Each structure stands twice: as C-alpha cells, then as structure tokens.
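User: I'll paste a sequence; please echo it back and then give the predicted structure.

Assistant: Echoing your sequence first, then the prediction.
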Amino acid sequence: MTSTVEPVEPVEPVEPVEIPAVTEWTMEMLDAADLRPAPLPGGEMTFTLAGTPSADVNRALYGLVGAPVCWTDRFGWTYADWCAWVERPELSTWLAMAEGTLAGFFEIEAQPGGDTEIHLLGLGPAFVGRGYGGYLVEQCVRRAWRRGELWAPGDVPATRVWLRTSSLDHPNAMANYRRRGFKVAAETVAPKLVPDPRTAPWPLPRDPRAVSGRDEEELIT
C-alpha cells in the first residue's frame, strides 16, 4: 500500500511577532527524593549520552523539538557558537529513542555550587501526546541528579535541579513538571519578540562545493 504526501509549500519569511505578555517560570527541585516517577510509556524508551559532542546534532534537534513551541532564542547562533556550547565538559546531551526512532532529547548543565540546569527538554512532533513526555522528564531529572557520576566527572554532587519554561511552551509542560515534583521558584511577565520558528537561519559551516583533494577523501572514507 502506498500513501501520497502532499508537498509542503515553502515558507515565506515574515517579520518577527511581538507577543505582549510572555510568562516565564523558573522551576526547581531541591532534593532527589522529591522526584515523582511517571507512568511507563506504551513503548520502550531508551536514553543515550552523546559521547561525541556534535553542534549539528544539537541544532537539528533544537529545530525538530523546538519549532512547534517557539524555541527561537538560538536562531542567531553561528556554527562556532553551537560548537562552543556543546563541546564543554559540564554540558551533557542525551538522546531519547522510541519505536526505533529518535524521539527527543535533553541538555543538562553542571553549574557551580551544585546547581544543575536542564536547558532543553522535549519530544519531536511524532511523539507528542502519546504518553512519552512524563517519562522523558523523569529520566532527565534522574540523570541531572547524577552529575559528576554520569558526566562532568569529579564535579561536586547536584544540590538543585532547575529549568525555565514559559507560556509559549506546550500547554501540558507546567503540569508535567509539577507532577514530577518541581516547584515554581520565580515568575516574570514581559513582552517578547519571536521570529517565525518555521525558518531557522542556519547555514552550513563551510561551502560543500569548495572541497580540496584531502577533504574529498575524508568525506568518502
């Protein structure tokens, strides 16, 4: 059986939209014992630490997961910015697999004094609303509390796990975090200029047409 997929029309660039009142919450967990488990998802879900930092992987996942919920803050990052971000020992990137597919990811940073920030966390559109979200958050937080053991070797133990979310995020995000044991530590409301998240202006780090003999050999071996 074959299926026909309607072609998607190219998106014409549009001006950023100012949203007059975006609420941002800082949420925190101060003890690992406060983490509440999520129901198991309907299918197996596994998690792998990205052992080789890759700017390409992180920015691709940023677009995959973040576009539907207006993640646009990194649109202005250059390729060098992405490399500088992911190639730090205090940052860990975890890939979530489900049904044989890359389903989502999360970024966790070991910060000074035991603070451990979950920078990014989410699922690709194909897995949203299917019972995977709560388990993703739980497993992310479990790994955040194990800093110095799973990544950032020799670092001090985590004393606080925290994250930021906003009213632009998925409507179920806040409830999900609360169910896992997070509490609101701070709240702000401010206008925000949001670019069109369907257009991610990320050029390649180099022109693939300009390949020297040695570079060409490296590309095909």
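The chain has a mean pLDDT of 91. The longest helix spans residues 55-66.
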